[in-house]
Write a structure and sequence with these properties.
LSM domain-containing protein (chains A, B, C, D, E, F); homohexamer; LSM_dom_sf (chains A, B, C, D, E, F); mainly beta; Sm (chains A, B, C, D, E, F); 73 residues; Sm_dom_euk/arc (chains A, B, C, D, E, F); RNA binding (chains A, B, C, D, E, F)
């Protein structure tokens, strides 16, 4: 399964996304994704030092600033 | 709704944009957006430590340096 | 007006450009711009802590390293 | 062998990937890769100071944030 | 003159290039440039704190990591 | 000679590559390169403070994270 297909398979599921910059980690429901890995998440929260810090709700993430995507079980 | 369509749906609304770099956070009215997520905002202010710091007026943001986009309610 | 059209409308005018990296801020006359937002500025000066620091004259800026563009009134 | 073909030849093998940012180093089984070097790894662990730190399981890595890829023998 | 044409007009001339990262500044003769602003310089020296530090000879610079290009008179 | 042709002319030769991030410098034999400047090096070593630090063997480097490429004589 190619990386972009793997992402598509995660739609509707909770994922963890590590962004570039000051160690931004986000968790949310993956609602859509395009081929650039731009992501639209809902019910998103920001994770700092392993704890939920800010409730962000719905966010759009720019693909090129995503470092790593994990499914959350 | 794909990420770029979600962005289009926010035109005319206030959004919060987190840019790469020294934790630049901007709030403004989304006036236009292209497929690279380059954004044109008006009535923009810079947010530092949760407070409005600089009034920037109209700005153009380069899509690849955008980390995250939020609607502001 | 799309972001790249907005940029075109600023040709001949003074703009302020924030670049990635150590808070590089430049002011100059926008002379040309392409679709990648690569910019050619003339009469450019570097701004540090709100003061004019270095006169740079004519410069070419790589679009992907531009964070934000502002018209200067 | 072109870089992307070399990557394809590593599918099914353990690789070490150095990501941009706070010296993220990951080791995992390369499961798929596309032409942008987006990678899908399984059985992934994070390496900090030469020691295995976090078990991440399956991850997707954005190609443009990959600095270096090594086969692990 | 578009930014890439301006670059072409500098071939054979000495330019100063500011790269991303730890304030890398290079001076050299621009020998060729492509549309991505990848540059091939000869007789290149590295500038640190306004002084010539390392003689690098011929170098290839990746366009997306170039912040700013200046002609040197 | 265009930058990408210059790179092709270095195949089979030892090059020094400066990567983005914590001043990663690598030396190795350039084995292949594509138009994005993705590189495949063999007999690679990492250089820190001018000294050889780690033997890395064969590595793939992502073009957009390359700052500068030098031939090594």
């Amino acid at each position: 399964m190619f990386p972009n297909k793997k992402i598509q398979s995660l739609i509707g599921h909770k994922i963890r996304v590590e962004m570039k910059g000051d160690k931004n980690i986000l968790e949310g429901i993956l609602t859509s994704a395009d081929d650039y890995l731009n992501l639209y998440l809902t019910s998103t929260t920001e994770i700092v030092d392993g704890e939920r810090k800010r409730v962000l709700g719905s966010v759009i993430l720019r693909g090129n600033n995503i470092v790593m995507i994990n499914p959350v079980n």
